[in-house]
């Protein structure tokens, strides 16, 4: 074993605990590691899911990013905001995020301002 994950648990009365478990080595998937835009987009969407409280498994997210439909999104998109918009607009992710993101308003925004994500109230 050459990689581990340290998880922080919140227990009763706000007490914290930690546990260590085996992890998949980060370099196991060379395609995912070599594409900077894929790695950056993955981290961005993973942060969004945490901030917005979206129920999305990180393993599932990584598997979605390995699909050909997701890997070809970068081509034709000129800005990171547009890439994130196109990725989150895919049916698998849109279903997860549509309760917190206003996709209709986001689609109406000019491409240069798509880095600002309109949230539902």
Write the layout of secondary structure elements.
Blueprint: E1 4-10, E2 16-22, H1 30-34, H2 36-52, H3 58-65, H4 68-71, H5 80-88, H6 91-97, H7 103-108
Antiparallel strand pairs: 1-2
Structure, explained:
This protein is α+β, with helices and mostly antiparallel strands and 121 residues long. It has one domain (28-113). It has seven helices and two strands; from the N terminus they run ββααααααα. A two-stranded antiparallel sheet has the order 1-2. Helix 2 packs across helix 5 (80-88). The model has no long low-confidence stretch (mean pLDDT 76).
Count of strand segments: 2
Which consecutive residue ranges, at least 5 long each, have pLDDT under 50?
Answer: none
Helical percentage:
40-55%
Major beta sheet summary: 2 strands, antiparallel
Note the overall shape: globular
What is the C-alpha radius of gyration, as a whole number of Å? 17 Å
User: Strand-residue fraction?
Assistant: 5-15%
- How far apart the termini lie comes to 45 Å
Number of domains: 1
Strand order of the largest sheet: 1-2
Encode the helix/strand succession as letters.
EEHHHHHHH
Structural class: alpha+beta
Number of helices: 7
Output mean pLDDT.
76
